[in-house]
Amino acid sequence: MQFKDTKQGYPIYVIDRKNVTVAVGKITNSPVPHFDNHFPGAGKMVVDLTIDCDGKVDTYVMEDSAEVGYAGTLVITANRECVARELESIYSNSDQALSMMPYHKEAKEKSEKLLKEYSQEYKERSEFNDRLEGLENNVEKLTKSFSEFLERMKGGLK
């Protein structure tokens, strides 16, 4: 269903690609196609969709002949089939990213070794960070030892 065919009270799906959630809202106005005022001369017809979703009311400008619209990380549609396609896309993209993790882990390890060889600045920064981490560990051990010593001293004075 195109946005121009929707009516007040129709259900509308709002997919949040960032949080991977789907909410069902309702259209609270009867969208009337008009020329896009934001981009004069573009000649596109749009509708202003006011949607009440989870108690939050927002208005989105969507191309009137579109079935799916985008607003930041949100995907808006009146079609369940479009929801399924969008979720399949999210699933597929995530699956591809996960399958690349071993490669990226290995590439990171190899490039770090090579950077230490080819970049003096990276090598010095890495050595500094290693020394700093060692100092932090030593301070932590000293603090623990000192606390234990104080506890023994308190116990011996009683």
Provide the descriptors you would attach to this structure in a database record:
158 residues, alpha+beta, 7-stranded antiparallel beta sheet, 3 helices, 7 strands
Describe this structure in words.
- This protein is α+β, with helices and mostly antiparallel strands.
- It has two domains: 3-99, no CATH class; 102-157.
- Helix content is 48%, strand content 25%.
- It has helices at residues 80-99, 101-118, 120-157, and strands spanning 11-16, 21-27, 34-35, 45-53, 56-63, 68-71, 74-77.
- Strands 1, 2, 3, 4, 5, 6 and 7 form a seven-stranded antiparallel sheet that branches.
- Helix 2 crosses helix 3.
- The longest helix is centred in the C-terminal third of the chain and has 38 residues, at 120-157.
- The radius of gyration is 29 Å and the shape is elongated.
Write the layout of secondary structure elements.
Layout: E1 11-16, E2 21-27, E3 34-35, E4 45-53, E5 56-63, E6 68-71, E7 74-77, H1 80-99, H2 101-118, H3 120-157
Helix pairs in contact: 2-3
Largest sheet at a glance?
7 strands, antiparallel
Point out poorly predicted stretches. none
Q: What proportion of the residues is helical, as a percent range?
A: 40-55%
How many domains, as an integer?
2
Shape: elongated
Structural class: alpha+beta
The number of distinct β-strands equals 7
Question: What does the average pLDDT come to?
Answer: 92
Strand content: 25-35%
Distance between the termini: 83 Å
| Radius of gyration using CA atoms only | 29 Å
The helix tally amounts to 3
